[in-house]
Amino acid sequence: MDSNSLKHFFHIGYHGYHYRGWQRQDGIITVQEVIETSLSKILKRPVTIYGCGRTDARVSANQYFFHIEEKLELDYDLAFRLNKVLPDDIAVFDILPMANDCHARYDAEQRTYDYFIHTYKDPFLSKTSSFYQMERLDIPKMRMAVELLTKYNEYYGFCRSPEKNESTICNVSSAKFFVDSSGDKYRFQVTANRFLKSMIRILVGKILEIGRGEFSLEEFESCFIDRRTPSTIIPAHPQGLYLSKVTYPYLDLKPRKEFSGIMQDRSDEIWVEV
């Protein structure tokens, strides 16, 4: 089939530290705005792109997809040209011809997020991981809290403005907690069919409180059972969060782990699940 007759998905990654999130907003710099401006310059016409989801300010994406509605006549290497124009913290990996009825956001069936923490001050990690100076965390209780994420699917208490959502049901298929070989870095990984606004950061914030003994495991579980919001919500820092995998029924690409310095190809070898 002629690829010019198809819709195209753009497979990208970005470091979100210098952006106010994915979605275009008036008067502030966002990832969507930068890409739309760059594409419009190359294609010499206004371009609107449709992303696979929203990420908050300073949140990164190790794997992200967007599409544009209009047809592309690709008689040149658009990925090469776009990468030349885009800033260094946004990269285009692939441009993929897809069927016309495919949609980058609505067709995504699973998304995986990773959240990284380091517990010592390190200037080389400050923009890729979240710094929390912590000692004597109750790791077994934190692990038990993570295990609860797959037990329940009502996340009303773990999002911003839950009343604005038609549903706060999220089906979490996998939740893991890792410690690195040195014992001073932590990694949370969650896969679900959907996520609510700031849900991962709120959950990580509460799990850290459990580890410090400031919030009980019973209180945490009751938020799921009773569909209630904790009395205080302090989301974890945004720069440790990565959208790391997006899966479609017709597309399942391996993430480009080398995009983030803390997620090198060999990084899985240093993480131990607890």
Please outline the helices and strands.
Elements: E1 7-14, H1 31-43, E2 49-51, E3 60-68, H2 78-85, E4 90-98, E5 110-118, E6 130-131, H3 139-147, E7 172-180, E8 185-192, H4 199-212, H5 217-225, E9 241-247, E10 271-273
Parallel strand pairs: 3-9, 5-6
Antiparallel strand pairs: 1-3, 1-4, 2-3, 5-8, 5-9, 7-8, 7-10
Mean pLDDT reading: 92
The dominant shape is globular
Number of domains: 2
Query: How many strands, which pairing sense, and closed or not: the largest β-sheet?
Result: 10 strands, mixed
The portion of residues forming beta strands comes to 15-25%
User: What is the rounded distance between the termini?
Assistant: 48 Å
Tell me the Rg in angstroms.
19 Å
E-strand count = 10
- CATH superfamily (homologous) name of the largest domain: Pseudouridine synthase I, catalytic domain, C-terminal subdomain
In which range does the helix fraction lie? 10-25%
How is the CATH topology of the largest domain named?
Alpha-Beta Plaits
Report the CATH C-level class of the largest domain.
Alpha Beta
* Helix and strand pattern: EHEEHEEEHEEHHEE
What structural class should be given to the helix and strand makeup? alpha+beta
CATH architecture level-2 label of the largest domain: 2-Layer Sandwich
What's the helix count? 5
The poorly predicted ranges are: none
Notes on the structure:
The chain has 274 residues and is α+β, with helices and mostly antiparallel strands. The protein folds into 2 domains: 3-98, Pseudouridine synthase I, catalytic domain, N-terminal subdomain (Alpha-Beta Plaits), CATH 3.30.70; 110-247 and 255-273, Alpha-Beta Plaits, CATH 3.30.70. The chain has 5 helices and 10 strands. Strands 1, 2, 3, 4, 5, 6, 7, 8, 9 and 10 form a 10-stranded mixed sheet that branches. The model has no long low-confidence stretch (mean pLDDT 92).
